[in-house]
Amino acid sequence: MLSSVAGMGLVAVSGSSTSPAPAPISSLASFSSHGNFLSSSLCVPDLVPKRTWKVRAGEPSEKSLEVMRKFSEQYARRSDTFFCVDKGVTAVVVKGLAEHKDTLGAPLCPCRHYDDKVAEVQQGFWNCPCVPMRERKECHCMLFLTPENDFAGEDQHISLKEIQELTA
Ligand code: SF4
User: Fold this and answer.
1) What does 62-95 look like in DSSP terms, one character per residue?
2) What is the pTM of this model?
3) Sign of torsion over alpha carbons 68, 9, 134, 145
4) Which residues are catalytic?
5) Who has greater pLDDT, 40 or 81?
6) Which of 16, 80, 91, 160 is most buried, judging by how many CB atoms fall within 10 Å of its CB?
7) CB neighbours of residue 131 within 10 Å
8) For residues 128 and 103, what is the distance between their CA atoms, to the nearest angstrom?
9) Span 97-103, average pLDDT
10) Could you give the CA distance from residue 116 to residue 164 in angstroms, rounded to a whole number?
11) What is the whole-number distance in angstroms between the Cα of residue 168 and the centre of ligand 1?
12) CB of 5 shorter than 6 A to ligand 1
């Protein structure tokens, strides 16, 4: 199954909008930030199945991008989690959250498919930080990684310039 990341369209394998959280992306994913189609595997060893991410056209406002950038930094510090060693992953997810904030008024998780995004926002389960993250520190987008995660970097900071460059 596929799920799309916000209007910019980050697409990943996942279940339905109301199904339980998928397996942590760290065990499934593959990423890239080349052009409009993300398919690199910077974070993921060859041993694990690949997850493909896509980014379609659509740019969030700089204001929402900054709001979600700051939120991500603050929440990483608060939850004692870290960004991915591949900041391209972080940048794409932050951008997806910002786009949902613009289009839906809430930072709906950008890594899932939803039949009805408005209903999902109202339900709140997948508004970032989602329930799996709040309850179990499970972020299948790999935005917030616990220190023991193989793909966790040492950073809880990402600049607006980094996000813009990594998602250009
Ligand atoms: Fe998506 Fe949850 Fe991670 Fe936020 S914390 S990016 S909602 S998986």
Assistant:
1) HHHHHHHHHHHHHHHHHHT-B-BSSHHHHHHHHH
2) 0.74
3) negative
4) 111
5) 81
6) 91
7) 13
8) 15
9) 97
10) 28
11) 22
12) no
